[in-house]
Design goal:
The structure holds two protein chains of two kinds. Chain A is of the alpha+beta class. Helices cover 38% and strands 30% of the residues of chain A. Chain A contains four helices and five strands. Chain B folds into two domains: 85 residues, Methyltransferase, Methionine Synthase (B12-binding Domains), Chain A, domain 1, CATH 1.10.1240.30; 220 residues, 4-Layer Sandwich (Phosphatase 2c, domain 1), CATH 3.60.40. In chain B, helix 1 packs antiparallel against helix 2 and helix 5 crosses helix 6. The chains are: A alpha+beta, B alpha+beta. At the A-B interface, helix 2 and helix 4 of A face helix 3 and helix 4 of B. Chain A: GO terms for molecular function: ATP binding.
Chain lengths: 133, 334
Amino acid sequence: MITKSSVQINKEWDIVGARQMGRELAKDLGFGTVDQARIATAISELARNIYLYAEKGKIAYETVEDMNKKGLKIIASDQGPGINDLSKVMEDGFSTSGGLGAGLPGVKRLMDYFDVVSEPGKGTTITTIKWVR
Amino acid sequence: MEPYKFDVNNYRNLLKKYISSQDEKSLYQAEQFSKLSMQHNISPEEIINVHIQALKELYPDLPTEIDSSMNFLLETMISYGLAYQEFQSLREKQGELESEISIAANMQQTLLSTTKPDIKGMDIGAISVPSHQMNGDYYHFVTDESNNLGIAIADVIGKGIPAALAMSMIKYSLDSFPETMRNPSVILENLNRVVERNVDTSMFITMFYGLFNHETGSLQFSSAGHEPGFYYCAAKDQFHEITTKGLVLGVSDQATYEELEITMEPDDMVVLLTDGVTECRIGERFIETEEVLEVIRQYMHLPAQEAVESVYRHFERLQDFQLRDDFTLIFLKK
């Protein structure tokens, strides 16, 4: 069964709602405590990026199934300014140096699959998946 | 002591033993456990998770408040775990960069190497030590069949890799000048145009060029804003600054360079250096010229090579073995 749901990010407190929904879905799928916490942290990061740079956007969730595994797909999308230099943003130490948080490399580490598509002036879509171990 | 594996059973047993005895040995084993965990890239939140599981197994009736508080702790550790992973990947990257730089530094040494000429009646000592891996100072000797000696000493304002790259250019320009071009002022004028044309305007190179005439004992020299050298006159037992008027290389393609001449008598000496010597810092203050000369005086009776090395070691110690700038020193003794 595939579940789809999403949370709009318009204000800072929506980040909490996005985490909450992600954690509940993760729990239902059978993720352990540590992975639940990692997923929540990744969602926080994605939602914060939307809130800080694009002002609004949304976090969508899908349960995914592969041959013999189940996972949670999280898609963060916005119509914000987009990211100019993706390889710079994906570099360790670039966004974290100012203590702003885990940055996109952090999200990539927390999750099993990570993909980002961004067009300057049009927006950014980040797709991530975490598989149940 | 048995080797430790990262698993809950192991941790639980260790924890149990510690709770009952509170002994130092268990704590030592805990230390081993954490080191082993790091070797296996186990992040802090996973350790907390193992702790929670072990605790629940040891105390099935664990109060829910404690349970929740442990989850709370786990949550706070996630970002630390990320920072730790990032640190590791940055450390790896740093290792790669360091090895790349050390290859470049080796290459630079080969590219810029110059042989100290053996000239009858002259004793020459030269040392050049970079403050980082790559040297922004440079010295070069050329001789002709009449044993005349050309000496260049240069310093790029700036340090490290950009400075080193600029220096390679200087060396190859010098090499490409025809042998008939020997006048210090003419050499500097030509180099100045090369630098002006090829190097970013934010980078400057200072240089001193001297031509020693073996037969007459005269030294003609010109300076492009370089740190003044010294001429030691043995008869008067005095040091005199030697420098000439001239802009640093690369500022204006119209620059011209004054040329002066001194005649060296037996036991006289010429000292050439870069600001890494004269701007040596002792604690908070820069060293005074008088003090530099004092140190030179202390060692100048030695054979020239031994003397420059001794002066270097002296300054190295003064600065707690951490050079703040590239250090180059040449002694020319007659």
